[in-house]
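Appendix C reproduces, verbatim, an entry submitted by the partner laboratory led by Prof. M.T., so that reviewers can inspect both the input and the predicted structure.
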Amino acid sequence: MMNEKNPLRSFKMHERKQNTFLLNVPLRSKIVFLLAFCLLLMFVISTYSLHALRKDYDYLLYQSYQSLMENCIEDFSDELEKTENYLTTVSLDETLQSVLAQFKDTGVQSSSGTYAVKQRMQQFLSSDMNESLSDFCVYTDSAGIFNSSAYNPYSHKEALTMTPEQIQTLFAQASGGKNYWITEYADAYGLLVVKEIRRVASIKLDSLGMLVGYVDLKQTVWDQIMQAQRQICYFSIADGNQKLATCSMLGDDAELEAMFPKGEDYSILSVKHTPYFTIRGQIAPYGWTYTCAISYESISSTLQSRLTSIVFTLLLCTIIMFLCSRFFVDQFLSGFKKLMWMIDKLRVGEFSEVALSKQDMERKDEIGITIRQFSVMANEIKALIQDNYERKLLEQNAKLQALEMQINPHFLYNTLEAVYCCSKMKRMEDACKIVNALGNILRQIMSTHNNETTLGQEIDLVEDYIAIQRIRFEDVLNFSMQVDHGCEAARIPKLTVMPLVENAVVHGTENCLDSCDIVLSVESDGQYIRIRVSNTGTAFCDDLLEKLRTKAIRPRHNGIGLMNIDSRLKLYFKDQYRIRFYNDGKYAVAEMVIPYEPVKEGGGDKC
């Protein structure tokens, strides 16, 4: 079954690597990076603020132009309302009412009546009260009886002709007496306004026909808006997607409506690489939409030059601040470099190099105070080392001797007990062997001029000790030894291996029903030596040494000796050794790993 990758574990590993990387970055790089980041952040925020300020300016400009356009649209709407009122006045004309009433009552259209309507309509078109209407059409429910564009030689439009179905639709839309605006013929005829003609005689108010007025919307826009506001260079009116009128100074191909973003009230659009401030609004009474464009080039160039100068000034100030900050950082870190140099000299023991300059003595900031205090501390450490060095060495030697003395009585007790037993049993030859082996052991232990020995001499002690124990336990004890070549010259504290062998003999034989097998093996890889003492007949409990240290279990027999071995190895080898007790099958194994350090010539005890 495949192990799935734990995302939480991967995240923690990534976070740990990132933290390690940040911790390893030099302090100067951290401070410079932090300053650069803060300055860059300030520059970005300032640039964004300028961009937001420009957007606010555009919005204020939009509000200003919107207020202006509201006035223009109000004037434009008033003009269209005048047109509607004028059309109402025309529909109430007595001549028009009389001719249309006669036609409706008799069903006969006389030429004299048609001529009278024509003359009257021409008078209305040429009246000073008419400002927007360019032509008239009069329709009955069956056909048209008058079209001024057909008789006007100056009209640029063709006569608007409608089918009977279109006339009926027109009557249905404009019925009710209200004015009705028609935009679907705007491209060919302009804007059409329709007014139902009702009979006013005898207050019958029945429908006599329809009066259609042609409104030149483009000319109206030009007169009411473009001429009134000279800064407007584009203005268009649309009914949905149908454009009703356009007045443009940008060229015939300018289509700002298509370029205008959806959902926006204003935008800056570019036509032939020239920016225009474009706004869009509603002509409320009619539901039409207008688009207005005003030249933005001068405003844009002024804003751009101001923004460029501000951004350049910000960038220049940021660079100057960064350079100044870097200079002060270098000045700040120079004190730390001096302090690190002093610490390095102190580490290697060069106390004479840890001296203060005149500048260090006169410096009043926190770094100067720290350097001076460190110098005082270095001098105190130097004096402390000189005063206490020999005393510490004497204390260490005394401690080692005390540990050795803790081992000697325990060993002597066991050995003398064996001599006593042999003498009592009249085994004089075995007693002599025990005494001879004991003499060799005591000669090694009692040599106080050196606290260390070689591994070869320690193995000799083990052989003497095993010689004694073989006499005590006869066939019960089986001992074997395997030692790699070259290990005998290794440096080792006195009485380190023999207590392990003694511990194996004592615990292995007391619980053994048949025989006790003890194996001593010494292996070396050139850097470390592994010493392993294995015995049958017993087993170690888990974490034996830790439990002896914490007094979780009480030491039995040689328990104190095991703790002393650990203490002696720690004094000699610091943290470069390892000792552990474990079980391997039927064997209880005491394993010790120490550095391979050959004794220098003349070192070690000489027997």
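The CA atoms of residues 47 and 53 lie 10 Å apart. Additional entries are available on request from the coordinating office.
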